[in-house]
Amino acid sequence: MRLYSTIEKKVVEIEPIKRGQISMYSCGPTVYFRMHIGNIRAFVNWDVLHRALMYLGYKVNRIMNLTDVGHMSSNDDFGNDFGEDKMDKQARVEGIKPIDIANKYIDTVLDDFRKLNILSPSGNQIPNDLTFTDVEKYGWSRATEYISEMISMIQRIEENGYTYETKQALYFDVSKLADYNIFTGQELSEKEVGVREEVSVDTEKKNPADFVLWMKKVGKYRDHAMNWPSPWGDGFPGWHIECSAMSTKILGEYFDIHTGGVDHIPVHHTNERAQNIGAFGHPSVKYWVHNEWLLSSMEEKISKSKGAQPLPEILKLGLDPMDIRYLFVSINYRTKITFSLDALKGARNSRLALTRRIESLGTNVGNVIPEYIEKFKRELENNLNMSGVFGLINELLKSQFPKEDVLATIYDFDRVLGLDLQKREEEGIDKEIEEILKQREIARLNKNFTESDRLRDLIYEKGYRIKDGTNGQSIEKI
Ligand SMILES: [Zn+2]
């Protein structure tokens, strides 16, 4: 597998720490608002990577955090530690406790992920009845469950001499780390980090780029709703320590891949890396990979503050979630996408044209064409070359291979694309059967044959027989 490594600034061969296995951490959503279309791109892109790694035979150990601690970084590009606590604010707006805000928005994340065919970090289809109460079983880690790990990691960083304390907070002293700005190559002095507000809040802070490891419940934050005891007094962790603590606690001091959006590079990931070195004396992440921006039609970065829309709003325009997935799947993660209604409509038209061509192949599913499976794998391994993948689909549809084998091959590709290409509404197969078929597809991808057999039997009970081609599955009424 080859991917673009942000630090090395080139496409590199991924050499897993443990042969045949990939440990992967994905920065997840902040759960005090409904995620918007700009957030969604990352989750679709990294879902495709996850599925591709499984398809290529890797055992993937992946986790994704849920930021349910209200953090101060005001989601701007400057990493301002002294913004307003959004979780607290939203809790006041909605008149409920911060943790209930988090739970509520975790459920909306699950809902959006389900609609978009995004697998859970554990590599399973997200069950319809999964709610915030059981997300940990599916590979999500909630920040509030790891406060003690964050505290012990901060203690290690402190023991190693990378911190200083003020009346307001414990800071990471970035001047102690020579290659702090390895991602951007910026000089520290170039980094204008919300200077004005911070200086007015904490005059003891040494360098604007120094960031909070632990914020004390004093001064501006004396009424902060979520807080915990710590060696530095009652308070709450900085945002960045959350990801460093959870990733290394669960995946180990060294792990393979860390994903995120390019917006995380200059502050969040720069700081995560600094903390790992501060605690362990070495970096923890072997490959940092980032997806590019989703831009508005005005070529601006799409963000919450600029009114980016959440998924349900976009679907109201008469679109299918698969139109959105198609848009993000068909373009490489390293390419900027200009997002507009026209772009969505374009994606919808291409997707519908593709489904019609697939439907014209009939319903018999034959055997996959090994030569094309190999070609498909090569395209995935080539930095997830999606234009190559769609090129292969076109080739197949124009080819002289038996229709049923073409169908089986394209269905097999869809285990990675996740575009519901097997969906045949006019056949009258009800939603429930479709759902079970989808689950079985995922079980097979996970090589969970007990589960796959159970689902086959379940479908049999409901009056359908499953036929497995070399890889693809089809069903017929008994
Ligand atoms: Zn993160």
Features:
alpha/beta, binds zinc ion, Four Helix Bundle (Hemerythrin (Met), subunit A), Rossmann fold, 478 residues, 15 helices, 2 domains
- Which strand-content bin applies to the residues? 5-15%
Helix content: 40-55%
Side-by-side strand order of the widest sheet: 5-4-3-10-11
At the third CATH level, what is the topology name of the largest domain? Rossmann fold
Oligomer: single chain
The hetero molecules present are: zinc ion
Uncertain runs are 73-80, 193-200
Description:
- By secondary structure, this protein is α/β, with parallel strands linked by helices.
- It has 2 domains: 15-294, HUPs (Rossmann fold, 3-Layer(aba) Sandwich), CATH 3.40.50; 353-477, Four Helix Bundle (Hemerythrin (Met), subunit A) (Up-down Bundle), CATH 1.20.120.
- It is built from 15 helices and 15 strands.
- The chain has helices at residues 37-55, 86-94, 98-115, 147-159, 195-201, 239-251, 265-280, 311-315, 321-329, 341-359, 370-381, 386-398, 403-417, 431-445, 449-461, and strands at 2-5, 10-13, 21-26, 59-66, 140-142, 163-165, 169-172, 211-216, 235-237, 255-261, 285-291, 294-295, 337-338, 464-468, 473-477.
- The longest helix is centred in the N-terminal third of the chain and has 19 residues, at 37-55.
- The structure holds zinc ion.
- Residues 27, 243, 268 line the site of zinc ion.
